[in-house]
Amino acid sequence: MDLFENISKKIFVVLILSLMLIFSAFKVQAEEQAPTHLPQFNPYWYPSDAIYGFVKGCWEKMESTEELNEFWPAELQSICGCILDNMRIMITWNQFVSEWAGTLKGEKAQIAASYTNMCVQRAFQIKQLEKEMKKNESGN
Length: 140
Hints:
By secondary structure, the protein is an all-alpha fold. It has five helices and no strands.
């Protein structure tokens, strides 16, 4: 066996081992990184019918609230969407279904009220800015 043949065998073995190591690293990395863009892998994904149902129920309740009577239905729907968007950031779908159904109490009620207040205040601010913009456009 000459020196060249011996070195060739070693290079071949090292190459094969390197490829095995690289492929196994890719496999481990792929298993660790579940594709969060697919709903079944993203725990914060909510089904669209649940989103629609939440916004519809919320909007119908808010529509009968005297303090919010200056808002159009589309604006109330936007407020309700804002509330749910904020909740979806911190509450998984499974938690929402199992722990947030029915009448909310304690910490959950405070969280929901906080998001509601934040979204309503934001809607009032937008409405105020729109009034100011119209006023500026008319020159008054």
